Automatic annotation (TrEMBL):
Residues annotated as domain DUF305: 2-141
One Pfam match: DUF305
Coiled coil segments of this chain: none
Domain of life, source organism: Bacteria
Signal peptide: none
Gene3D superfamilies: 1.20.1260.10
Name this protein carries in UniProt: DUF305 domain-containing protein
Matches recorded under InterPro entries: DUF305_CopM-like (IPR005183), Ferritin-like (IPR012347)
């Protein structure tokens, strides 16, 4: 349960970060990646809401808990929002790698300790998708 209530605002921040890309980056590969992040995580947020409701829990809020692995601080988000061009691209990828790694850590904990099949299935899909995106971003950073 904790996994779901933590993953919702975690995903909300990733979507917020992804929405910054089209107006700040000229890198088409990064723009496409940000769209993929948003298209993957928005439906997962709906899935989390549905699962929580099935357990009789309230709809989660997008309220950030900065104790979560990989969550960006307000200062980090402000720095990202102020950047543009290649500086933005590099900062965004570095932050999103950190953000994804935090999500993977939480998902791996759920896989090891969770007892709900739907929640564990979601955790596995998060690990798989976000690890692929981390690999892609590391490749892009090494080429820049």
């Amino acid at each position: 349960m904790n996994f779901l209530t933590m993953m919702y605002p975690h995903h909300a921040q990733a979507v917020e970060m992804a929405k910054l890309v089209p107006t700040r980056s000229q890198n088409q590969q990064l723009i496409t990646l940000a769209q993929a992040v948003e298209q993957a995580q928005s439906p997962e947020m709906q899935q989390i809401t549905t699962l929580l409701q099935s357990f009789g829990k309230p709809t989660p809020s997008g309220e950030m808990n900065h104790d979560m692995p990989g969550i960006m601080t307000k200062d980090q988000m402000a720095k990202l929002e102020a950047a543009s061009g290649p500086e933005f691209d590099k900062l965004w990828m570095q932050m999103m790698i950190q953000h994804h790694q935090g999500a993977i850590d939480m998902a791996n904990t759920e896989l090891a300790q969770g007892n709900n099949a739907d929640s564990k299935s979601l955790a596995q899909s998060i690990v798989t998708a976000q690890q692929q995106e981390i690999t892609q971003m590391n490749t892009m950073l090494s080429q820049s």
